[in-house]
Design goal:
With 247 residues, the chain is an alpha/beta fold. It has a single domain, classed as 3-Layer(aba) Sandwich (Rossmann fold). Helices cover 23% and strands 18% of the residues. The strands form 2 sheets. It has a 6-stranded parallel beta sheet with strand order 5-2-1-6-7-8. A two-stranded antiparallel ribbon has the order 3-4. Strand 1, helix 2 and strand 2 form a beta-alpha-beta unit. Helix 1 packs antiparallel against helix 5 and helix 4 packs parallel to helix 5.
Length: 247
Amino acid sequence: MSDVTRRDSLRLLAGGAAFIGLGGATSISQKLMAQPLDTNGNEKSALIVVDVQNDFVPGGSLAVKGGDEVVPLINQLSKQFKNVVITQDWHNKGHASFASSYPGKKPFETTELYYGTQVLWPDHCVQGSKGAELVKGLDIPHAQLIIRKGFHPNIDSYSGFFEADRETPTGLQNYLKERGITTLYVVGLATDFCVAWTAMDGVTSGFNVTVIEDATRAIDLNGSLAAAWKAMSEKGVSRIQSTSVLA
């Protein structure tokens, strides 16, 4: 299955007409794929903190169950890294990914945009809104860069590397390569969407990528979490627990 087909399949998993609810992180029986840790002692590693924003934690418009639980752990993990990058969803009002932009459409239905099938989400992370702000408890003063994504009005963006058209870069790839970074550790929200897309695109962009599983939480719509882990594994993304970094 090609990368594009895999991404479309994951996206469609979230588009069922019957929305049951937002799920938390799920444990899947599989052998953890570990790699030698390369964190604070090496300038070539970076922690990528994905979309830890008010709208994605309890009380937000697209809340991920338990999303706020990852904040203390991410703060702790960040201290193990000299290099930290944060991504931030940053949508325009009336964005093409919002169900409210289409009369008669409801959140979690789909529509066809020029780049393929698009899941329609509740309005979230609107530029300048409270919901778009990083969670107040996120404390990473040494983070060097915030990458804002999803600000093109007609293109959604899950990945920290590319918009959903798979052609428009965010600039993250060039930034990391110019810094000489080769190894990425990905945490944040949500495991099965923005974390997964970021991790897979990190591999495509030439980086060694590991997701720190317990520092993420998932939406898990209609099997999307299991599908995301399968896709990440096939792509070559490694998967560890935070104890491997904090030990």
